[in-house]
Structure formats: structure tokens, C-alpha cells
Design goal:
The chain has helices spanning about 45-65, 70-80, 155-160, 175-190, 195-210, 245-255, 265-275, 305-315, 325-330, 360-375, and strands at about 1-10, 20-25, 30-40, 90-100, 100-110, 115, 120, 125-130, 140-145, 150-155, 220-225, 230-235, 255-260, 275-280, 290-295, 300, 335-340, 380-385. With about 375 residues, it is of the alpha+beta class. The longest helix has 20 residues, at about 45-65.
Length: about 375
């Protein structure tokens, strides 16, 4: 079971910084995901700093194998109190989840999380832990067992309190209003990804706000338990040419989505399996070579140039419309990404007229794997052949 997790956020109207902060990490070797959503007091830069501090500290505790309950209790008892408002500098929701379904959730001050299974909202039992130092602080601790296709939604109170004081929503959208939006969307698109669902919910909340101006920072964290989406990217000719046929067949027999990055690689597979590769001239962008087409392959791109630009887009998050953007989307639509990287040297890579950053294919793939794991929480396997 794969834990698909994503967060979407919208700033308070007319603010330059997010007052909520989300942080997460995936541990592929442990089949474990940890995540924290914190809501800083107020809005703007001060709220951002408070939320960031709370979220990152708590995540570090959890990453270092501290028990989530103990970690959250330390944070709860450590957060200062605002002298003006008399309330905590931030609130938080945290989850420590394993792919066998065992999960522990702790909430302090944030709206109760929403757990959906088969179109129904579940009501899990919880333990309440009172702060030893602050009478008005307590946290809820849930031990739950997730099943395939379960959904978990966390949010900041900007989502549930939106439009508060209006005729339609005198008490705000509230948790029940958010649940209604979620269930309607899941009925319409039961396999929607966490990323798409969180973005959709934030957009719907913005539509509820008067004049579409949010009065508070709004964050939605979506978790979806499902089968992993696997992909395989073959790039570069194999070191041993007598293994070309073996690797071509291995690639085509792969059950998930398949991509080829490199003209030489595409020609090897075409030759070995007698499948034509045809250039798609309509996809040429000027700066980058366009795509090609091959039966049984989902995506065929040029090699080093496109890989280098894709890595740049993954790091910056600001792609342009070209082949690298298409390859980036292909990667981000996958949960488990496998790379077959040919180790045979290609003389074209050492053309002195080419930029130095595209010199070595293996280094590009290693950097790409790191970004996919650390920034996008993907599982990445790299095999050099």
C-alpha cells in the first residue's frame, strides 16, 4: 500500500507569506511517512516563522525515531503564549504512518482530521493528554489502522472558518461543510490523487470566501492509501552491447508506465524489438528537441539536454511548456520511479560546445533521484547497466 500525501495552501488575502507551514518526509527503507501541518498565530511573516519553527522541530523529533506522542507533548508544553491574545503561538497536526496501515495521529488546536472509507466518514477513538504547564492546552492522540483506498484530510482553521459571519455561513464553512465538498468530489472522481484533491479543496474554499478574499491562511493536507503507480525510465546505451536485447525486452515487459530518454536508447530498443520510432515534429519547442513515438512506450524524449532541463524544473518548480515539462509531469505522476541507466560512454556528451552541466548522464540521474526523494517524497530506484 502506498501513502500518497500532498499539501495545498493559499495565503490570507493581501499577505506575502504563508501563516501555515507543512513539512513531511518519506523513509523508503522503513515504508514510513511522517508529516506535520502547523498553523502560526495570526498571519504574515511572524505567523510563518512560528509555524515553520513548530513544524520543522516536530518533524526532526519524529525523524530521529522519537515517539510521535512524546515529541508532540514536548512541543505542546514548550510553545510560548501570546501576551496580547493569551493563546499559543501555533497549533499543529502530525501523523506517523506506515505502509502496513498502522498510523498514529496527534492534534493540538487544529480542526479534527477527516477519515473517509468507502464514502463514509469514520469516527475514531482518541486519548486526550492535558498539558502539564498550560491549562487550556490539550492534544488528541489517535491510533488507527488504515486500509486500501482510505483518505485522510488535515486542515488549518482557515478552511473550516472561511466565510464566518456571512448569511450563508454564520459559523463558517465548518468541518461538516468541508466534508460535504470532499464526499461530492470523491463520488465524482474516486481515484483522484492527493495533489489534485488538496488543490481542488483549497480552490473550493476560496470560492466560498466573500469576494474570494481569504481572511485567514488556508491549508489542506490530503493522504490517499492506494496501489503505487510505478514507472520505468530507460536512458543511455548499456555498457555491454551484447546485453542490448536483454535490456530492451526487460524494459518492454515492465508493467507500469515506460519512458525512454535518449535517441540512441530509443534506436537500440527499436532495433532489438523491431518497433519503429517516429519523430513527432509537432512537439519541437526550439530550445529543446521534441518528442518521438514508439508503440508500447508512453514517452520518448531526447537524452541529456532534456534530462538536464527536467532536473532544473524539478528543483525550481517553474517549468516551461516543452519536452522537459512533459517528462517532469511523467515523473511526478509516479510513486515508484525506476531508472535503467546505460553506462556506455557516448562521444556526443563530450562535445566541447555543450554546457558543462550536461557532461555526465549518471550524475544527472543521481541528482534527479535525490530531488524526487527529498522534495517530492517519491521512491526512486536507480540501476546502472
Amino acid at each position: 500500500m502506498f501513502i500518497d500525501i500532498a499539501c495545498s495552501q493559499k495565503k490570507k488575502y493581501n499577505q506575502n507569506a504563508y501563516g501555515d507551514y507543512f513539512s513531511s518526509n518519506r523513509f523508503p527503507n522503513m515504508n514510513r511517512v511522517v508529516a506535520v501541518l502547523s498553523d502560526g498565530l495570526g498571519s504574515g511573516i511572524k505567523a510563518n516563522i512560528l509555524a515553520c519553527m513548530t513544524s520543522t522541530m516536530l518533524l526532526k523529533f519524529m525523524e530521529n525515531h522519537s515517539d510521535i506522542e512524546k515529541s508532540c507533548e514536548i512541543i505542546m508544553n514548550s510553545l510560548p503564549v501570546c501576551k496580547v491574545r493569551g493563546i499559543s503561538y501555533s497549533t499543529f497536526s502530525a501523523i506517523d504512518c506506515f505502509e502496513n496501515g498502522k498510523a498514529k495521529i496527534v492534534e493540538e488546536g487544529n480542526p479534527d482530521f477527516i477519515w473517509i472509507r468507502n464514502g463514509e466518514v469514520l469516527k475514531p477513538e482518541y486519548q486526550t493528554i492535558q498539558s502539564k504547564d498550560f491549562k487550556n492546552r490539550k492534544m488528541k492522540v489517535y491510533n488507527i489502522n488504515l486500509e486500501q483506498y482510505d483518505r485522510i484530510i488535515f486542515c488549518s482553521d482557515g478552511a473550516t472558518q472561511v466565510a464566518m459571519g456571512t448569511k450563508q455561513f454564520p459559523l463558517g464553512l465548518e468541518r461538516k461543510g468541508l466534508i460535504k465538498i470532499i464526499l461530492n468530489k470523491l463520488a465524482e472522481a474516486p481515484e483522484i490523487s492527493s495533489k489534485d484533491l488538496s488543490e481542488y479543496l483549497v480552490h473550493q474554499i476560496e470560492l466560498v470566501a466573500p469576494n474570494r478574499e481569504l481572511k485567514d491562511d488556508t491549508s489542506i493536507v490530503s493522504i490517499y492509501c492506494r496501489d503505487p503507480r510505478e514507472s520505468l525510465i530507460f536512458t543511455g546505451p548499456p555498457y555491454h552491447q551484447n546485453k542490448d536485447s536483454y535490456w530492451a525486452k526487460t524494459f518492454m515487459d515492465f508493467k507500469g508506465k515506460k519512458a525512454i530518454s535518449g535517441g540512441t536508447t530509443a534506436n537500440i530498443i527499436s532495433r532489438e524489438l523491431n518497433i519503429p520510432v517516429v519523430a513527432d515534429l509537432s512537439t519541437n519547442s526550439g530550445k529543446l528537441p521534441g518528442l518521438s513515438k514508439m508503440e508500447g512506450v508512453d514517452l520518448v524524449t531526447e537524452g541529456i539536454l532534456t534530462l538536464t532541463k527536467t532536473l532544473e524544473y524539478l528543483e525550481s518548480g517553474k517549468p516551461e511548456k516543452n519536452a522537459a515539462k512533459i517528462l517532469m509531469d511523467f515523473l511526478l505522476d509516479s510513486d515508484v520511479i525506476n531508472f535503467l541507466v546505460g553506462a556506455q560512454m557516448n562521444k556526443a556528451h563530450y562535445d566541447p560546445n555543450l554546457p558543462i552541466e550536461i557532461e555526465i548522464r549518471k550524475n544527472i540521474i543521481k541528482q534527479m533521484a535525490k530531488v524526487l526523494e527529498e522534495k517530492y517524497l517519491k521512491k526512486v530506484n536507480v540501476q546502472f547497466i
